[in-house]
Every structure is written in structure tokens, then in C-alpha cells.
Amino acid sequence: MLFSISESNWWLIAVAATAFFTIVTPETVAPAKLVDELGAAGEPYRRRRRVFYVASPVGCAAILALNLLRPESTSALLFMYSVAVVALPLALFPVRERIFQLGIAHQHPDTKVKPDRPMMAWIYVSITGMMVVATLALMTTR
Q: What is the mean pLDDT of residues 60-65?
């Protein structure tokens, strides 16, 4: 059922996943509302966001191009790629404000800030869970 989707449709799904990643990830790491509250101090975040919007599609295209040199079926590769690029923003979204606060705190050299354990556990468990489910789905359909 999973791979009854044609290869051209998997390409569309991969492109949509890349667009989702490119649009959502900057908002996840540095929410616009919080960056705007910083005023002029938020300019480095705005600059990084602009660079990310250009670099991420190019990087994703390079990853896909390198992996497509393999002689295997591209449907499975495009499926795993799509899951991977969607998993990161989904895992970071619930803890986005804490991630941003940690980024701001790390700009001050005298501040000792460590990521809190629940946040790190959430990120690790959610990404690992998504990848395990995707791998199981891939293995059961083969």
C-alpha cells in the first residue's frame, strides 16, 4: 500500500516535505514573535533565517541527488527522506521557545545554561519514534 504510490508522486511528496521543512524550521528555532521583541538585537536571527531559506533547499537537493545515485528503488529513499525532513520541525515545535531562550542565553559568556532534560528527552524520543515507525512501515511493505 505504501509503495503503490508512483515514483513521480513520491517526488512531489519529497518536494512538499522540503518546502515544509524550509518554511517551518526557521520559525521553530527562532519564533518571529520573539525575534521581533528583541528589536535591533534580533538582526542576527533575521539574517540567519534568510540564509536558511536559501541554503536548505540547496542542501536538501544535494542530499537527494547524492542518494539517488544508488541503484535501489527511489520510492523507499524518497519516503525516508520525507519522513526525516518532516520529523525535525515536528519534534522541535513544542519546545521552540525554550530553544530560542537557550540561544539567547548562550550569547552571554558569563551565563551557564544547560538544556533541560525534559526538552532534550522530548526531542530525542520524538525523532527516534518517528524514524522507528517509518522504518517499520518500510520493512512491512517490502
A: 82
